Amino acid sequence: MSTLRDKIVLPISFASGIWIPAMLLCCIPWVQKGMLYLHWVTFWPGKWLTEPERAGFLKNQVSPFRIPTKDGESLFAWLIAPLGVYSKNAQSFIEEKTLQGDIEETTSFRLLKEDPLARLLIYFHGNAATLAQDRRTEEYRSYSSGASDKIFVLAFDYRGFGNSTGSPSETGLLNDAEAVVEWALNTACIPPDRIVLLGHSLGTAVATGITYQYAMLPVPIHFAGLILCAAFTNSGNAFTAYSIGNTIPVLAPINLIPSLQAWFSRRMRDTWRTDQRLVAIAKQSDRFRLTLVHAENDGTMPWRQTELLFTSTLQAATAGDVPDLRVIDLGEAGKQEIWENNGKSISKLIAKHGDHDTMMKWSPISLAVLESFALTNVTSATPPRE
C-alpha cells in the first residue's frame, strides 16, 4: 500500500492541485473541527446506545450511565461486565431492574468495586460514530476474553458524540478524559495500577493527553499501561497523512514542502501533540508502560506515524543512548520491538495485516491488554532472553 501511495497516488495528488483548495479549506476552524472529529457522522448500529442487548450483549451485561465533567457537560458511557463475571452472577444480572442510569446500584458496579482483583480497561474510541458502533462492541468483548473473570470495560462518548452533550475540542476532550478517569479512581475506587488506557486513532491522542496530565502531577499517578493503536504524532501530521477512503491522501503533497507543512501545522486549532507528550512522560516518569500497535496496510493513517512516535519516545527514555531492543519476528503477524528498563517498557508492534479498524478486534490487541494488566507470563508470546 505504501509503495503504491508513494509512487502513484501521491504524485497524482500533487499534480492535480486538489490539495491546494483542500488545504485552505482545512484551515477554516469549523471545517477543521468537523473533519478532525467527524462527530456529526453516526452509523445506524451506533444509535442503539440505550439498547446494548441489540449489539449482542446479555441482559444487563452493559450498564449505560452518565459521567458529569467539571465544565458542565454530560458524557454517555457504558460499563461492560466480562462474560466470566456475568456467568458467575447471572441470576443477579437477569433479575436486576432498570435503574435509569444509577450506576452505583447496578450489579456490574458492585462487582467491579468490591473485587480486589478486578481490572478496568478504559477505551478511547476514534473519530466518527459512537461507542455503540458495531465494530466497537465486538472489540469490547474481545478485550476481556483472555481473563473474563477480571477485565471490565468502560467505554464512553466524547462531548458532541452520540448522547453526550457539548461540542468537541482538545481542551474539552481532555476534560472528558479527566472526568472518566476520576470516576474510575474515586467513584469505582479502582487503583491506577489496575487501570489500562487503550486508544484507537483519535483516541490515542486523548489517552496520551490524560496520561500526561496525571504523570505530571506533583505526586504522579501512573496507570498499569497505555496502549495506542493507529496513532499519529500530532493533528497537523494527521491531516496531511490521512487518506480518504483508505486510498486518496488529498493533503499528502504538503509533506513534500517542509515549510508548507510547518505553516499548515500552525493553523491547527487543536494540535494534539502526542509526540511531545510521550517524550515528556518518558523523561519524567519512573514507571511507564507504552504499547504501540499499527498495521502496515493501514490506508487511513500510515504506520510511519507510529514509527516516529516509537523512535522519539525511546530516545527520550534512554537519554539518547543506543537502546537494547528485543526484536521479535511474529511471521505473518508482523514484527515487534521491545525495550524494558527499571519499571519502564516501550514496545512497538507493526502488524502486516489488519488495516486501520480490523486489527482492533484481533488477538495482538487483546494480548497487549493482558500484558499491561500483568495477567500473562509471556511478553507477546515470546520467551525471555537467556
Automatic annotation (TrEMBL):
Keyword annotations: Hydrolase, Membrane, Transmembrane, Transmembrane helix
Family matches, as InterPro entries: AB_hydrolase_1, AB_hydrolase_fold
Protein name: Alpha/beta-hydrolase
Gene3D superfamilies: alpha/beta hydrolase
Tagged with keyword Aminoacyl-tRNA synthetase: no
Coiled coil: none
Keyword tRNA processing: no
Lineage, uppermost ranks: Eukaryota, Fungi, Dikarya, Ascomycota, Pezizomycotina
Residues of the signal peptide: none
Domain of life: Eukaryota
Classification via Pfam families: Abhydrolase_6
Molecular function (Gene Ontology), one example: hydrolase activity
Regions that span the bilayer: 12-31
Domain (AB hydrolase-1) ranges: 147-286
